Amino acid sequence: MKGAVLTPVGRVVLIEEDGTLVRLSWSDEEAEGESPLLAEAAAQIAAYFDRRLTRFELPLALGSGRAALFHKALLAIPFGETRRYGELARGLGIPPQAVGRACGQNPLPILVPCHRVLGATGLGGFSAPGGIETKIALLRHEGALLI
């Protein structure tokens, strides 16, 4: 099933499979059906952007093996805080470039907060439409970026 949510950083589409969210993407695709999970995800995303929610409580497909460990590390970064690529890399025993690639391939941005990961000397990238401007908007929303 596919549901759509309008957010301050654009329209996002959520895809649910077997009672788990598997993808969030910025898209104009039409919603295809409704489910309790998609409704709850939309409500939690709205609460996040209204600053009434700082941690999502949704069933998320985190992958397996290293991908799951990486996504869990992202989920451990608190609302309003950031980490550096190198810091995550050391904790996971992988190169910083691998952290950057994994952030760029995150299938559930916002929900799995890859926007909270910064480069050694700057913001790093962001794979959403609007790129770094969307990342800046999310970090400002969380109070993690004051520029």
From TrEMBL:
<dbReference type="InterPro" id="IPR008332">
    <property type="entry name" value="MethylG_MeTrfase_N"/>
</dbReference>
<keyword id="KW-0489">Methyltransferase</keyword>
<dbReference type="Pfam" id="PF01035">
    <property type="entry name" value="DNA_binding_1"/>
</dbReference>
<feature type="domain" description="Methylguanine DNA methyltransferase ribonuclease-like">
    <location>
        <begin position="7"/>
        <end position="62"/>
    </location>
</feature>
<dbReference type="GO" id="GO:0003908">
    <property type="term" value="F:methylated-DNA-[protein]-cysteine S-methyltransferase activity"/>
</dbReference>
<dbReference type="InterPro" id="IPR001497">
    <property type="entry name" value="MethylDNA_cys_MeTrfase_AS"/>
</dbReference>
<dbReference type="InterPro" id="IPR014048">
    <property type="entry name" value="MethylDNA_cys_MeTrfase_DNA-bd"/>
</dbReference>
<dbReference type="InterPro" id="IPR036631">
    <property type="entry name" value="MGMT_N_sf"/>
</dbReference>
<dbReference type="GO" id="GO:0006281">
    <property type="term" value="P:DNA repair"/>
</dbReference>
<protein>
    <submittedName>
        <fullName>Methylated-DNA-(Protein)-cysteine S-methyltransferase</fullName>
        <ecNumber>2.1.1.63</ecNumber>
    </submittedName>
</protein>
<feature type="domain" description="Methylated-DNA-[protein]-cysteine S-methyltransferase DNA binding">
    <location>
        <begin position="72"/>
        <end position="144"/>
    </location>
</feature>
<keyword id="KW-0234">DNA repair</keyword>
<dbReference type="GO" id="GO:0032259">
    <property type="term" value="P:methylation"/>
</dbReference>
<dbReference type="Pfam" id="PF02870">
    <property type="entry name" value="Methyltransf_1N"/>
</dbReference>
<dbReference type="InterPro" id="IPR036388">
    <property type="entry name" value="WH-like_DNA-bd_sf"/>
</dbReference>
<keyword id="KW-0808">Transferase</keyword>
<dbReference type="InterPro" id="IPR036217">
    <property type="entry name" value="MethylDNA_cys_MeTrfase_DNAb"/>
</dbReference>
<keyword id="KW-0227">DNA damage</keyword>
